[in-house]
Amino acid sequence: MIADGVEDEEKWLAAGIAGLQQNAFYMHRALDSNNLRDALKYSAQMLSELRTSRLSPHKYYALYMRAFDELRKLEMFFKEETRRGCSIVDLYELVQHAGNILPRLYLLCTVGSVYIKSKEAPAKDVLKDLVEMCRGIQHPVRGLFLRSYLAQVSRDKLPDIGSEYEGDADTVVDAVEFVLQNFTEMNKLWVRMQHQGPAREKEKREKERSELRDLVGKNLHVLSQIEGIDLDMYKDTVLPRVLEQVVNCKDEIAQYYLMDCIIQVFPDEYHLQTLDVLLGAFPQLQAAVDIKTVLSRLMERLSNYAASSADVLPEFLQVEAFAKLNNAIGKVIEAQPDMPILGVITLYSSLLTFTLHVHPDRLDYADQVLGACVKKLSGKGKLEDNKETKQIVALLSSPLDKYNDIVTTLKLSNYPRVLEYLDTETNKVMATVIIQSIMKNKTRISTADRVEALFELIKGLIKDLDGDAHDEVDEDDFKEEQNSVARLIQLLHNDDPEEMFKIICTVRKHILGGGPKRLPFTVPPLVFSSLKLVRQLQGQEENPFGEEESTTPKKIFQLLNQASHLLQNCVQTYCLLTVESLSIIPAPELALQLYLQCAEAANDCDLEPVAYEFFTQAYILYEEEISDSRAQITAIHLIIGTLQRMHVFGVENRDTLTHKATGYSAKLLRKPDQCRAVYACSHLFWVDDQDNVKDGERVLLCLKRALRIANAAQQMSNAARGSTGSVTLFVEILNKYLYFFEKGNPQINVAAIQSLLELVTTEMQSDSSTPDPAADAFFASTLKYIEFQKQKGGAVGEKYEPIKAWPCIRSFADPVPAFEDPGNGGPVSVPKTLTNITNGKLSLKKNGR
Fold first, then answer.
1. How far apart are CA 202 and CA 205, in angstroms?
2. Contact, 63 vs 20, CB < 8 A?
3. What's the rounded Cα separation, in Å, for the pair 295 and 259?
4. Does residue 449 surpass a pLDDT of 60?
5. N or C: which terminus of the chain has fewer CB atoms within 10 Å of its end residue's CB?
6. Are 733 and 775 in contact (CB under 8 A)?
7. Could you tell me which of 285, 287, 282, 393 has the C-alpha nearest to residue 339?
8. Phi, psi of 578 (to 5 degrees)
């Protein structure tokens, strides 16, 4: 059926165009021969094609445009006729003899245009006559196009101020009256279309009406272009007349479109000065009208107007624009109790944007808008509609975008109350927006109260909200969210130690409830912020609580006592907090690193019990949680390195911790790892800047133990693969011997180093050894270092002089079973077992060789 109707319309349109073109041909021939009567005859027949009721508005428009083009040519002919002496008055009377009213009125409008141009009669009289005559066509489509033609031919002939058709003092009033009258009649015809035809074709008629709306709206555009319309005339005549027509038509499509036209075509300053009248019409509109969009566009235009120049802001204050808009929105919502939540949020979002542009310094206005929004949302529960949540995000993002400062936004008491209506996912999105704003603007949040308020806003990222614990989360998104929280924690700072400590406690309170997945991201930045505070307190030499003019020893001691008490309170309290925090992190390697960092901070503050507690927790974690062999290797070297730098421990505590570290080292899974960890422990017994930690014997014991483990590794390699493996471990131990020899350890003597040199040489020359270029290069570099130290001269050169590295260098370059002594030319035997390595106290035996 629909297809048949479309095909019929195409046929009717084709027939109409054919008839129009045929009559236009004869009209052109009459025009060429200056035959006025035939021209009028065929033009009337041509225009009769527009009398059809079979075409849809879209098809009718195509037919109308062809007739319009022909009428322009006819108008030019009428101008020529008047130049040739034909009376325009007679011509005006002549065209009214056309048989049908529609062609008659088209011809009358065409001649009327020429009549006005001739100035033989006042423009206002001709226009008044034309607009009244057009009432003869009451068919909606035909009448709309006829009046559109009248508006088109008369728009440049209105008696406006400065126009060549300007008349007496009331000429602008006449122009306005003509346009308003034409607008009113066109709107009536447009609305009448809705009520013609069966109810089942309602959607079709609405579509057709939408296609014709610009015909009506052009009248408002013409009104806005009349120069003589000042603010007073707009306020007293134009706007009330237009709004009266809009409200009285009681048609949703017309009301929405015409209100939008009013907002778009007239100047912003006119809207501002007539807010009372304009806003008063909104509650009177039909319930189905999309008021939120129209009103939002009005506020958007006013916001842009306010942003265009600071000079216009006093006008907004003068007319109390905010109060009027806020009141109007309330009335609109009351008048439409069924307005969707989306509409309510959209209205308040637009009002907030307006407020931030016009009154950026009035936080109470912004908070009032948010409060009104909360009031309307109360009892609605979490918003789940995607469009609604997006609008809430837009509403909450407005203060962030305007102020570029979360601190200012935190002053809005209703801001977090609006946030509560977001679902979990959107809450996270909003939290991310807030953090990104802080990062972008490098906002400084420096009080515990503001941190508390901020973390309430971003709680969607720092802990599981209701119903969120079991939701599947994309891992990459989760990591990005938590990394943003970690960066935020690093930005929190206050130069006042007491306030900074409060900030740290506030952050800790929030993040500890984040669950095991979040803690590895959020606890480390909190720990390092705390350690930064600790070192800040430790490094302060001046009064952190404020300066005083007079300083006495008593006051200095009081100050030191206060500072020390604050420092110890901070560190000791945080020790307990951190132990609790780190113990629940599901990442033992990370937790161990943080324990050791805290231990170092306590060491810097000379707080031995605190440092010992952290080491104790690190050891417990190592024993109970770290089982992977590679993780154990990394952990034990971290422990050794940290313990080596500690100076706060007494003899007993240090011995206890050192003994545990060496015990862990010897229990690693692989022999090479054991060896490296054991010789690393030698540094625990010899610390350069600590005179009380220089135990040469225990250093030697560690190195000997490392040698035995290296020897065992060689034996295991020989048993498993038939070769002794690399000598890298022996070279590494040799370097440790050289280090402690150079540092002045009396237990490391030339004999021990010489024996170890010969051992490495023998191992490298052995037929069962595995070639290892890296080990060869390492040993060569070690020998070169010995020679370099000799060449330095002085005490260092004298110390290294007894070490005979040259036969080893020659052997390394050209391996042979024995070396020749350069002194007597005889062979020199080289040690073949570890038994030869001696320091006069303890010898190592190599089994199975």
1. 5
2. yes
3. 9
4. yes
5. N
6. no
7. 287
8. -70, -40
Please name every residue paired with 769 in a beta bridge, in sequence order, or none if there are none. Answer: 725
Query: What tokens appear for 787 in the block?
Result: 């020679």
**What is the DSSP secondary-structure string of 639-665?**
HHHHHHH--S--HHHHHHHHHHHHHHH
Q: How many CB atoms lie within 10 A of CB 638?
A: 18
At 212, list the tokens: 């014709």
The whole-angstrom separation of Cα 381 and Cα 580 is 36
Token digits of residue 214? 């610009």
What is the average per-residue pLDDT within 74-80? 92
Report the alpha-carbon distance of residue 150 to residue 411 in Å, rounded.
Answer: 59
347-382 pLDDT, tens digit per residue, is 999 999 999 999 999 999 999 999 999 998 888 888
Q: How many residues does the chain have?
A: 849
Degrees (nearest 5) of the Cα angle 197, 200, 201?
Answer: 55
Q: Quick one: how far is CA 52 from the chain centroid?
A: 58
Q: Would you say residue 810 has pLDDT above 50?
A: no
CB 142 within 8 A of CB 185: no
Rg (CA), the chain: 48
∠ Cα 702 708 710 (to 5°): 100
pLDDT of residue 526: 84
Local structure of 747: helix, strand or coil: coil
Beta bridge partners of 827: 820
> Which amino acid, residue 752?
A
Q: Which structure tokens are listed for 296? A: 């939002």
| pLDDT tens digits along 284-336 | 999 889 988 999 999 999 999 998 888 898 999 999 999 999 999 998 888 88
Do 277 and 243 contact (CB within 8 A), yes or no? yes
**Cα–Cα–Cα angle for 754, 760, 763, rounded to 5 degrees:** 140
Residue in 324, 334, 314, 207 with CA at minimum distance from that of residue 274: 324
Please give the pLDDT value at position 551: 35
Max CA pair span of the chain: 148
How many alpha carbons fall within 13 Å on the CB side of residue 154?
A: 34
Q: How far apart are CA 6 and CA 382, in angstroms?
A: 48
Q: Chain-centre distance of CA 476, in angstroms?
A: 16
Measured CA to CA, the distance from residue 701 to residue 679 in angstroms comes to: 9
Beta-strand pair 827-828/819-820: antiparallel
> CA 642, 645, 648, 653 torsion: positive or negative?
positive
DSSP letters for 61-127: HHHHHHHHHHHHHHHHHHHHHHHTT--HHHHHHHGGG-SSHHHHHHHHHHHHHHHHHHTSS-HHHHH
Confirm if 299 and 325 have CB atoms less than 8 A apart.
Answer: yes
> 442's torsion region: left (phi>0), alpha (psi -120 to 50) or beta?
left
The count of other CB atoms within 10 Å of the CB of residue 573 is 13
> Cα separation of 172 and 154, whole Å?
14
CA-CA distances (angstroms) from residue 339 to 260, 329, 332? 19, 12, 9
Distances (CA, A) of 50 to 59, 68, 224, 632, 848: 11, 11, 30, 94, 119
* DSSP secondary structure letter of residue 770: P
Question: Cβ-count burial of 840 within 10 angstroms (0-12 exposed, 13-18 middle, 19+ buried)?
Answer: exposed
**DSSP3 helix / strand / coil % (the chain, rounded to 5):** 75, 0, 25
